[in-house]
Amino acid sequence: MSLINLDLATRGMDSSARWKILKRHVFSFLRHMTLKKFVNFCHAEISRIMKKEALKSYPYILKIESTNICNLSCAYCYDGRRMSVPGERPYGRMSFDNFKKLIDEVGAYVFKINLYGFGEPLLFPETLEMIQYASKNNIGMSISSNLNFNDPDLPKRIVESGLEVLIFSCHGVTQESYSKFMVKGNMQTAMENVKKIVEERKRVGASTPFIDWQYCVTKFNEGEMGMATARAKELGVDQIRFLRPFIPHDAGEEWLADFFREGEPVGSQQHKPGCTWPYRSAYINYDGGLLPCCQDVRLLVNDFGNVFISGFMNVWNNENYRRSRRLIANPTDKNIACHTICSRCTTIGTANNKEINKRKITASSQLTKGNI
After folding, report:
1. Each residue of 27-63: pLDDT tens digit?
2. Selection from 243, 293, 239, 240 nearest residue 268 by Cα
3. CA-to-CA separations, 214 to 16, 121, 254, in angstroms, rounded
4. Is the peptide bond before 278 cis (omega within 30 degrees of 0)?
5. Residue-averaged pLDDT of the chain
């Protein structure tokens, strides 16, 4: 396990887009640094390097899903927004009280929280309350939104909340290509909200939220990339990133952009076997279900435990986590009894043989969302 590992969860990026995300992380680390957070960070990285199974450190970046409900039906996202079946997580939302309980337990060690998962965080008013509470506790807050809302007060409330980063999910600059990807969405509504957020930010003299336009490139929208760059500058967006979306291999040609080299694996950067999530971060569903990462969040059997019931640290060091960290440290050891989602993951190197390769993780698509 390398001493320095700057691996990111978001795939489909070139080096430019990757560096843009890393800069955001560095900004959050410097802005929210305290002695307690720095000491915890050091303990977490030492534990990762030494391949420890039980940790005294807390994660220093969290991904929290405030809701899995969305107002759009983007192509290939969350199985087309179908209803859940027995054994799957139903649709729902996190209460402010549960969010507060979590922050009160782990917030002193966390630099940054990505408050989004497979839903639209701004659908419900408590999201901005969550952002405000965490911001007051010296945590950098980030959300990803489609901004399809006709609420004249929303831009003002977003800026006032203390939100640090707003990832603007918008995959086209003509309504035709936009709505083909972001089904039920209105591009003009989204663009107008971006414009008003920038205006409100200027009006009050704020530097945040940093607006990061995330543009997933397909065959039918790659001809608009130049237009998107020009529109981003016109709107006052801070940066725009072009990504390769997670599209099934059997998708039509219209979903496969020429912008990315033919035959290149999903995720432009190459990754060595291994995983840093169980040392640095965690994915917390709206119902408190804790997962080691953002793969297969729908299946309840994949949860390592529930932080609202057991408390975060009791789950963070339970048998599921210990066995998974043991497997990550020794991915080729067939004597390790680990049956968590990590045992079916290609990222950590447990899919080196045909038997495990056939058990690929059936992850819900992340094509419209940023990760860590």
Report:
1. 889 999 999 999 999 999 999 999 999 999 999 999 9
2. 243
3. 13, 16, 19
4. no
5. 87
